Amino acid sequence: MPSLPSQDPAAVRLAVVIPAWNQPGLLPEALASVLGQEGAPPIAAVVVDDGCPSPSTAAIALHYAAAHPGRVFLLRQRNRGLSAARNAGIDFVLQAFPDCRGIFFLDADNRLLPGHMARGWAALQAAPPGTGWFYPDINEFGGHANGSCAGDFSLLHLLVLNYCEAGSLVRREVFETGLRFDSATMRAGFEDWDFWLQAARAGFTGQHVPDWGFLYRRRPESMLAAAERQRDHLLRLLRERHAPLLRPAALLELEAREAPRFALFEVDRPGLRLFLDPARPEEAEVPAFRRRLLQAEQAPGAVHAPALCVFAEAAPLDLLRRQGLLAMVLWWAERLLRDHELVALEIAAAAAPQLSFEVREAPEDGIAGAALLLLGSERLLRFAADPLSPEVASLDAEAPLPRLARLRLALPGPVPPPGGGGALRLLQAEIAGLGRLRQAMAGLPRPWRVDWRSSRRMMAADARAAIGLGATLPRLPAPGKRDIGFLLPVFAFAGLEKVVLRQAELLRARGWRTHLVVAGALGMDWGPEIGRSFDSVTLFAGLGEDWVRHEIGYFGSALSRMQDHPGAADALGALAGCDVVINAHAVGCHALAAPLRRLGVRCLAALHLVERASWDAPHGNPHALAGYEHAYDGVLVISDELRRWCIGHGLPRDKLLLVRNAPGHAAEPARIAAALAAREARDGPLRVLFLGRLDAQKGIDRLAALIAATRSPGIAWRVVGRPVMQDGAAPLLELPIEPPVQAPEALDALYAWADLLVLPSRFEGVPLVILEAQRMGCAVVTTDVGAVREIVADGEDGVLVPGGLPEEAIIARFIETIGRLAADRAALRAMGARAAARAGALTWEDCMRDLLARFDALVPPPAEAAPRPVPAPVAAPVISGAGA
C-alpha cells in the first residue's frame, strides 16, 4: 500500500485498536484493511504489542507507523493479556486524539472491507447518545458460516448469549465513564461479553449495523476455542460479576420491557394486549402481532414474540384479577405447557367457603365450558400451518384431546356461568387469520445469513434457568412497594393462619404487597379476610409429592427434600419475586431458603409452638428448623418460652425476634362493653365453650371426659370446631358439634355467650382463641402448656391446670375448677373483667413494631433504598511501550 500523507492527531475521529500477540503473519492484512477505508473520517490504527514473543510483530507495526505517520501507532508492554492490551489502546486513544468519537476493536487476524468505517461513522452519528456500541454480523473467512446478529438490541438476550462481536465500534463516552475490559477475572476469555454487560449496567445500549463489512477469521484452534473449553467456569465468573442484572426483579423488569411473555385475546374486545404482568399490559394490533409471530418463526434469534397466548372471556378474567388468582393460573399454565399442547381453565362455584384447584390430564369433556384457553405461540403457529387439519377440527368436539390439561378452579360466592365457547371461537379465528397471513408471506425472500442465536422467545426462561429458576410468577415489582410472601403448608383458618392474616393485613396497610403461597395443598379455606390481607394467592402443591422425609432428619426431625426435587426451580419461581419470604411451618420448603437468599430474597422462619409426638416427646417444626437455621436471616417466635427453647437448641440469640400474638380479629369497643354488661346481668346455668380443632393436640378425649362429668342443668356446654388431623377422636363427644365460624361478629357472639372457655390441650403455643375470649370478658381454664402462662395469670384472669400431672389428675383438676367457678359467679366475673383489660390492651401494631423495624433494616423502604450498584471500573493499565 502506498504511503499516505501525515495526519494531525487532532483530526482523528475514529481509532482502531489492534491487540497483537503471536500473529505477525496476519497483522499486515488487518493494518492494510484499516488504511484502505473509503469515505470515512480520519482514522488512526493503534497496534498494542502485548509482549509478543515474535520480534516480527513490533517490526511490522513500526514499518507501517513509519510509512504512515500519524495514522499507525505502536504501543509495547509486557504480556498481560487481551483485555490489558485493549485497555492500553483505549487509554492511548483518549489521551492522544481529543476529538476521536469512537474506538473499534480489531483482532490482528480479522479484516475490514473498504466501506466499513464509513458505515460505522454514519451509525454513530445517527444514533442517540445512549447507544454505546455498534456490533456487526459475523461474515466468516476461513470457515463457511455467516451468522446474523440482526434485530433490536436486547440486554435480556445478552445475559444468556454474547451476540455482540468484540469487533465493534464503541462510543468515546463509554470509556469516559471509566469502563474498561476486565484484565484480571476474565483473562481466560469472555472478556468482551463482560465488557458489554458492564456498559449495559452503566446505562448504554448496543445497536446492530447490518451489512457492515466486518470479516471474521475462524480457525479450529483459537482463543475462542480455548475459552469454550472453560465455558462453565467462565460463565460462573461472569454471573458472579453481574449478579445485579440476574436478580429476579431485574430479570422481570427486563422481560416486561423487551420480551412480554403473554399475548391476551379477549372476547368482545378489539386488538390484543401484551404483558408480563397482567396488571401492566400494552395494547397491540392483531395484524402486527400475526406478522411478528411469523417473523419470529423465520428468524427466532432476531425477533421476539410472546411465548404464551391466552384466549379468554371477560367475566372470568376479571374475577381472577379481583381475587388475586390470575398470576397463579398463568404460572400453572406456563408449567403445564411444557408437556401439554393446550391448557383449559374452568371456573366453578364451590359448595363450601373453600377454594379448590384441580389439574386433570386429557379430561373426557375436552375443552367444553372453558373460560380461558392457553397455548404456546409455537403451537398456535403449528395449528395455523394447516387450519383445516383434523387436529384443529377436533377442538370443536366434546371429547378427550391428546396432551390437554384442564384446570378446574372452584371458588365460593357468585362466579360467571360456564364458558359459552367464546374463547374457543377466538382461538379458531386467530388460527385462520394466521394461516391466511402465512400464505401471503410464503413468497418473501429469506435471510441468507444463518441466525445462530437462541430463540428470543426463550431468552427469559434461559436467563432464569441460569440462576436456578423455573417458571416465575408473572408479577413485576411495583414502584414504591415492597413484596412479602407468607409460605404455609396449608391454610385452614386455624391460629397460625389467623396470625398470618393479621400480620399481612398490617403490612399491607404499611405499603407492602402481600402474597400467600400454600405449599402443601391445592385447596384452602376462603373468605373476605383473604382479599383484605393478600394481594395474591398461589397454590403449588401439585409440583410433586414427598417433599418431607422423616427418617434421617436432623436429630430425628423432618428433612426437606426440595433441593433434589424436580419441582424446586418452579417453587423458587413462585417466591423469587418477593423481597422477603416468611416460612410459617412449611417444613418441606426449608431447603428453598438458601437458594432464595442467594437470589437476594430475605428469608425468615416463623415458629409458633413445639409440637409433641404421640408418645409425648417434643417434636415438630422448631426441631426441623434447627437444621436449616443458617439459611435464614431471622426466626420469629411468639413467646419468651419458645425463644428460650430456641436458644437452648443452638439458634443464635441475635437471629431470634419476639413477635407476640394479639387477638385474631378486631372487635368494636361497643361489642366488648355489651358482652361484659350482659354477663354481669345474667344468671342461670354456667355457659362453657370449647372452640378449636377436634384433635388430640386440643385434648379432645379429655374434653369428652369433662363434658360427661359436668354436663348438667347447672352447666351448659357448646363445642365448636371440626377435626383437622382426622385422628378419629371427635366421635368421643356426646353432644352436637357446631361447625367452625370465621366471621369476627360470629366469633365474638360465641365468646359473649360463654362464661368460661375450656381448653384442655396437650401442647400449645399462644392460642388466639384465649386472647379473643379474654378480650370479650370470658375467663379461661386451660392446661399450663407451651406459652399459655404468658397470656393467662393463674387465679387472676384465668386458671392454669398443670400439664405435667397424670391424665386422671388433669381431668379431675378441670372438673373441680369448672364446678368451683360455677358456684362462685362473682369470682368468675371478676376474673373475666381482668382478662378483658389484659387482652384489650394488645394490638398488632404494638406486637409487630420490632418486626417492622427489622424488615426496614433488611429491605429499606423504597424512598431510602440505595440505587442499584454499578460495577467499579477496572483500573487502567500502565503502558510500558511508546508510540511511533
UniProtKB/TrEMBL annotation:
EC annotation from Swiss-Prot or TrEMBL: 2.4.-.-
UniProt keyword annotation of Transcription present: no
Alphabetical keyword list: Glycosyltransferase, Transferase
Glycosyltransferase listed as a keyword: yes
Pfam family membership, one: Glycos_transf_2
Glycosyltransferase 2-like domain boundaries: 16-129
GO molecular function: glycosyltransferase activity
Recorded superkingdom: Bacteria
Protein name (Swiss-Prot/TrEMBL): Glycosyltransferase
Annotated organism of origin: Roseicella aerolata
